[in-house]
Each structure stands twice: as structure tokens, then as C-alpha cells.
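In this supplementary section we document a worked example of the pipeline. Step one takes a protein sequence of length 133 as its only input; no multiple sequence alignment statistics are reported here. Step two produces a three-dimensional model, which step three serialises into C-alpha cells for compact storage. The input and output of this example are shown verbatim.
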Amino acid sequence: MAHDNNNGMAKGLVLGLLAGSAIGAVLALLYAPKSGKELRADIRERTDDLLTEAEKYVHTAKNQAAEIVTDAKRRSELLVSDAKTKANSLIQDADKVLTDARQKAGTIVEEGARLKGAVKAGVDAYKQERGKS
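The serialised model returned by step three reads:
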């Protein structure tokens, strides 16, 4: 956030300097005692200088924009990668829980079957003993 604020201040400063330079150059040329031909040549020269500075500024702005886009792409790729990793981890954890639950359910069913068999054997033994008496 602070980085964005610094970029905005820097852009404002550069634009202010360019505008101030342009206004100062025009005023200096208008109040200087020169012939029309010299004045036009000076204005043309100052205009060329300002255009060169503006081109440099545009070039710098384009480079900074490209860096920002590249950085944003890199960060988004990292976020997507992290999200995929976390999703895979959650899926693996869910599979483990499900597998454990199935194993426990199988164990409970087996124990229930053994208990049922033991109860049946006990009932059969009781009936046999009762029938002998």
C-alpha cells in the first residue's frame, strides 16, 4: 500500500516538474527581448526538450507498468499454486479420515458378528444344559 502511495507521489512530482518547466520556459521566452525568429527557434528548442522529457517519462511509466503486471502475474501464480497445494492436502486428509472410518466400521461389524456368534453359542449351550436336566 505504501509502495502505491510512493509511486503516486513520484508521478505527481514528475508531472509537476514537467508542467512547471514548460510554464517557466514559455514565460522566460515571452519576456526575453528577442526577435520573432529567435523566439520561435527558442520555443521550438524548448518544445523539443519537453517532448524528449515526456517521452522518457512515458518510457519509464511503461517499464514500471510492465514490472507491475509481471509482479501481479507472479503473485497470482503463487496464490493459485498455494491454493492447489492446500486443496490437495485437504483432499488427502479427507481420504484418510474416510479410510479410517471404513476400517473402524469394518472392525465394528466383525466384532458384532463375533459377539452375535458368541451369544448364539451361549444360548445354544444354555438350551442343551436345560434339556439335559
